[in-house]
Write a structure and sequence with these properties.
The protein has about 300 residues and is α/β, with parallel strands linked by helices. The chain has 13 helices and five strands. A five-stranded parallel β-sheet has the order 2-1-3-4-5, with helices on both faces. Helix 1 packs parallel to helix 8 (about 190-210), helix 9 (about 225-240) packs across helix 10 (about 245-255) and helix 10 (about 245-255) packs across helix 11. It is globular. The mean pLDDT is about 95.
């Protein structure tokens, strides 16, 4: 595997001045991001397919082991505060269980049977989208999750760092980021992990955009959970609705801090009607505003 190969340039890395070692590692990080460039079409195709599959009830499932699994869980957990993607629509399949997020569980990544059992236990099926991440592309647990989920009818997406790997072949949508050897041999938490994190960010954000949860480059589905976010929400309502600050504040409060509903309320639409419009248009603020424009 390319990710496990030693790079002769760094065989004496431990003898280098620290600044030179840091510079070499930074070059590796830049190369990792550059490796994602060739995969934008694959990421977009996977995002479009995922958005179409999820519908009103489908779940996003993140699967992996070790660093890859932790990165997948990290990305998925951000979807609730950022886009109000409900926890009931998220599933995390981490080799070794939740405890493996903070402490390595010996042998967990090799347990293919546990991967298959997790898919069955969580009743993953045709409405769901499963994202499996593995630097090697052949981690038994992750590969088993993808194979079992695909057999159950779920849409499957594989993210790996080695070409020709089983994960990319087993998933319906494969995203290959060829990061090659690491500065520290085999330490895929570095280049491979950085590229995986970038892919996950791009993929899930693109899915949320396609689902209509972004408007004018703003996180209009964001959960307001502190004073900073409350002010951000008021600013969004004010800017989008084109009202004064006090009117935006009142509208957002009437909408129980739902930014999309606050925008609609600030335009003079009763809250109950605004909720109904958002329900009909699956939370897509742009579509609701287009309907309101036709009334004028």
């Amino acid at each position: 595997m390319n990710t496990e190969a030693l790079d002769a340039r760094y065989l004496d890395l431990d003898l280098w001045p620290t600044e030179l070692a840091v510079e070499a590692m930074l070059e590796g990080q830049l190369a990792a991001i550059a490796a994602v460039q060739s995969q934008t079409a694959a990421i977009a195709a996977a995002a479009d397919a995922a958005a179409a599959r999820l519908g009103d009830t489908g779940r996003l499932v993140f699967a992996g082991a070790g660093t890859s699994g932790r990165l997948a869980v990290q990305d998925g957990t951000e979807l609730y505060p950022t886009y109000s993607w409900g926890p009931e629509r998220l599933v995390f399949l981490m080799a070794g269980g939740a405890g493996a997020l903070t402490e390595a569980v010996e042998g967990a990544e090799d347990d293919a049977e546990a991967g298959r059992a997790a898919v069955v236990q969580d009743a993953i099926g045709p409405d769901d989208v499963v994202i499996g991440v593995a630097a090697s592309g052949r981690t038994p647990y992750t590969l088993a999750v993808i194979e079992q989920a695909r057999a159950a009818g779920a849409l499957t997406i594989g993210v790996a760092n080695n070409p020709g790997s089983a994960l990319l072949e087993s998933a319906e949508h494969g995203v290959l980021v060829k990061t090659g050897s690491e500065v520290v041999g085999g330490s895929t938490r570095m280049k491979a992990g950085t590229a995986q994190k970038a892919v996950l960010n791009l993929l899930t954000t693109a899915i949320m955009i396609r689902l209509g949860l972004v408007y004018q480059g703003r996180m209009v589905a964001m959960r307001i959970s502190n004073a900073k976010l409350l002010q951000r929400g008021r600013n969004m309502v004010q800017d989008i609705a084109g009202v004064e600050a006090d009117a935006a504040e009142r509208a957002l409060a009437a909408a129980d801090n739902d930014i999309r509903l606050g925008v609609i309320a600030a335009l003079g639409v009763p809250v109950a009607e605004g909720k109904a419009l958002l329900d009909v248009h699956k939370g897509n603020l742009r579509h609701v505003l287009q309907v309101l424009e036709t009334r004028d």
